[in-house]
Amino acid sequence: MIKKLLKFIYPLLPNSKLRSIILRFCGYTIGMNVYLSSTFKISDLKSRKNNVIIGNRVSFGPSVLIITDSSPNNSKLFKLFPLESKDVLIDDDAWIGANVSILPGVTIGKCSVVGTGSVVTESIPAYSIAVGVPAKVIKKINPDEL
């Protein structure tokens, strides 16, 4: 009951540190100095835990959605498309732009950037910039420049 209440209160919290604390309490792994906008959302089954792992210093733009579980629920389509349930990992120092959707089973590598409006259907390697629907790597970042 308290977890449902916390998820309701989450968007009303005034700063990112409090939002990180709430998500940790709900069972997610959230690193240090993570920026979470008030419109950040995780779509998952309530019975799973530790299915989202976010590294240190990750920054999320407004309206980012992480999806860890997906199915057509009670539709007849369920026979063709059963529940897909996979973890999502976002490594240290990633930057996720506004309105990005991240699908089940995706890993976003260290120091990677995902451009605004992208839909991440496959993992993004470390030190990459990815954009589009579906997101594709368009540029590599030189780690020596960081």
Describe this structure in words.
The protein has 146 residues and is an alpha/beta fold. It has one domain: UDP N-Acetylglucosamine Acyltransferase, domain 1 (3 Solenoid). Helices cover 12% and strands 27% of the residues. The protein contains 2 helices and 15 strands. Strands 4-9-12-14-15 form a 5-stranded mixed beta sheet, with no helix packed on it. A hairpin with a 4-residue loop joins strand 14 and strand 15. The longest helix has 10 residues. It starts with a helix and ends in a 6-residue tail after the last strand. The model has no long low-confidence stretch (mean pLDDT 89).
Low-pLDDT parts are none
Class from secondary-structure proportions: alpha/beta
Q: If you compute it from the alpha carbons, what radius of gyration comes out, rounded to the nearest whole angstrom?
A: 15 Å
Mean pLDDT comes to 89
The total of helices stands at 2
Strand content: 25-35%
Tally of discrete structural domains = 1
Please state how the strands of the largest beta sheet are arranged side by side. Answer: 4-9-12-14-15
Order of helices and strands: HHEEEEEEEEEEEEEEE
Assembly type of the shown chains? single chain
End-to-end CA span: 44 Å
CATH topology grouping: UDP N-Acetylglucosamine Acyltransferase, domain 1
